[in-house]
Amino acid sequence: MSIINLWSILNAAIVGTFWGLIFRLALSKQKISYEEGITPYLIVLLLIVLRSILPLDFAYRFIIPSKIVLYELDVFLQSPIIGGFNLINIIALTWIIGSAIAVVRWVNNLRRVKNTISCIKQSSRVLPEEYRDLAQNIGLVPERIMLSKYIDMAVTVGAFDYYVIIPDMNYTDSDMRNILRHEADHIHHGDIFIKMLIHIACCLLWWNPFLLLLEKDFSLLIEYRCDDNAVREYSDIEKISYVETIKKMAAYKFNYPCECNAVGFAIASEKSTLVSRAKRVLFNQNKKRRWSTLLICPLAIAIFLVSFTVQAQPSGDPGYIEGEIIITKDNAYLQLTPDGYDLYVDGELFEQHIPKKELKVEPYNMLEIRK
Asked: Can you list the pairs that 233-242 forms with residues at least 24 positions away whose Cβ atoms lie under 8 Å?
């Protein structure tokens, strides 16, 4: 059984923010080597986002009592401010309103982008006949690939019903192969759907700037991964042609900029990013990737699961307030019975048949058990 309360929500936000900060510092201090695999980074990033929005703490968990900091914070948050409202109520209301506004703005943006894409598709031309076999061999449906003069980079749109839209310009055969292989990898891994889930998390935790930074990191990391997979079987000459295609698409984007909510070949087109992408394509040797995946991924998953079993909670006198009854270790105790445990407060029966698994949570975990 899992428990959701004030401190599980606070714990999720703190743990997620802490690991998000560590992840960001790791990326800034040590740039991703072109020999390192991207999968471990993506898994760690997604686990951080997931931990930030999952305020679950299981009944069987280790509680770290805080008799000063969290206790005083708890008293402060539950102190009445306006009428019957306390600070917790105000924070919760602000949080909900902010999340609702963020979600509404995002939905409106999706509608605008959908209308824009619909207009672009109507004015687009189909994939030329000479490239249809190439698209099919890569695993794409030729009828879902279009060329348009109203888009500045090759992009994949649609979380479930995908379309690949490519700028209508002159391409060599190698250009088209490079672009389609890259976009096919986005589709194969469901990148748009995952980006949508991450953005929903950003809307729910709109006050957390680290999630917005992680969202940008995800966009960059999936470009690295698509590059890696696209050139996996390439010769050195073919890798050079791939880098030339990246440069060509980036130059086109700079000259004909437009905005589109999608994943695409040159979506990360800053100069430093282009250089790092080119280095990965030209110099990667796949030496560290298997080992990094085998070591980092299980460790990250283990830390993720363990984080649900430890929680800091306020502890002090009065230790717990329920209505107007103050329960402390001095005025209350638990009596063992055949049906569980009974709670006595000031010598009177207060609660019956408390299951054993509840003894690890407050206020039961601080009370004497009598037999």
From this structure: 236/282, 238/174, 239/281, 239/282, 240/282, 241/172, 241/174, 241/175, 241/178, 242/174, 242/178, 242/281
Residue-range domain boundaries for the chain: 321-370
Please give the span between the terminal C-alpha atoms of the chain, in angstroms, as a whole number.
26
Q: State pLDDT tens for residues 104-143.
A: 999 999 898 888 888 888 888 999 999 999 999 999 999 9
Which helix H or strand E contains 77, and what residues bound it?
helix 69-77
Using DSSP's 3-state secondary structure scheme, residue 252 falls into helix
Tokens 């599980």, residue?
8
- Residues in the chain, how many? 371
> At which residue do the structure tokens 């402390």 appear?
328
- For residue 16, count other CB atoms closer than 10 A to its CB: 26
Determine the Cα–Cα distance for residues 288 and 337; give it in Å rounded to an integer. 59
Label residue 35 exposed, middle or buried (CB < 10 Å: 0-12, 13-18, 19+).
Answer: middle
Beta bridge partners of 296: none
CB 282 within 8 A of CB 243: yes
Question: How many separate helices (H) and strands (E) can be counted in the chain?
Answer: 11, 17
Q: How far is CA 101 from the centre of its chain?
A: 20
Name the burial class of residue 95, with classes exposed (0-12), middle (13-18) and buried (19+) by CB atoms within 10 angstroms of its CB.
middle
Token pair, residue 358, equals 């509840």
Residue 20, Cβ density class (10 Å: 0-12 exposed, 13-18 middle, ≥19 buried): buried
Helices (H), 236-338: 236-255, 271-283, 289-306
Looking at the DSSP bridge assignments, the partners of residue 345 are: 332, 348
pLDDT in tens, 308-338: 887 777 775 544 444 556 777 778 888 888 8
For residue range 197-212, list pLDDT tens digits in order: 999 999 999 998 888 8
Look up residue 95 and give its amino acid: W
258-292, pLDDT tens digit by residue?
A: 554 444 454 444 556 777 888 888 886 555 555 66
Running DSSP on this structure, what letter comes out for residue 317?
S
